[in-house]
Amino acid sequence: MTGNPIDWKKYLIVFLFTVGLFLSASYVSNYFGDKKIDQLKLIQDKISIDILSSETQFSLLSELSCKNISDSVLSGELGELGNKLEWGQQNLGMTDTVSYLKKYYSLLQIKDYLLTKKISERCKTKSAFILYFYTTAENCSECERQGFALSALRDKYPELRVYSFDYSIDLSAVKSMLQIYKIEDTKLPALVVDEDVLTGFHSVEELETRVKESFKLQETTLINTNPSKTIKNKIFLLNA
């Protein structure tokens, strides 16, 4: 007794359909992968221009006479740059390029911090700033909460600068700051306020008392008529 004849045509159709499905999936995957790379390159180009512009501003601001120095325009530049990096990290992931640009951002913050200190010493003024060291949410349950508190403080006192640094970033300049202030990964979040190191979470009220005593800041009521203009008051936590 002979069995049913094999329907080769049927198997061929199934095979071709499977191959077509596989090739289509590969094409779609590659298409969106290429789109993601294009987006990343666009972000990289924009940030590179921002960095070059900021480098030029550093040189110009360092040469200003004391009477011509007001609030540094770099605060807005840093906010815009941080916003672009945060978008890149959330939408594109921590790729090598995003990680590389994050290091640029950290260096730019350090340069602004050093410029601010230099101007303060030369002009006999006391600039208001806080250094903030954080790490990932998995390793620091209070870091995100601390970031929100600092953002609220910045909203209330626009003169205040807050420089945020990821403890785990592989950057010698940041590591030097960690050594200078003796910041430990087991005591994060950590803040440096007027050369005093504070570890653990600190509320807006606690920090407000400290900065008002140290820097004599004036409270400002902000009317947010354009949300895009408040980017500089956000504390960016760009995790590695």
Please give a quick description of this structure.
This protein is an alpha+beta fold. It has helices at 8-62, 74-92, 96-123, 143-156, 172-180, 204-215, and strands at 129-134, 161-166, 190-193, 196-199. It starts with 7 loop residues before the first helix and ends in a 25-residue tail after the last helix.
Low-pLDDT sequence parts = 221-233
Task: Summarize the helix and strand pattern as letters.
Answer: HHHEHEHEEH
Percentage of residues assigned to helices: 55-70%
CATH class: Alpha Beta
Number of strand segments: 4
The figure for the number of domains is 1
Distance between the termini: 69 Å
Topology-level CATH name: Glutaredoxin
Reading side by side through the largest sheet, how are the strands ordered? Answer: 2-1-3-4
CATH architectural arrangement: 3-Layer(aba) Sandwich
How would you sum up the global shape? elongated
- Global Rg: 25 Å
Residue fraction in strands:
5-15%
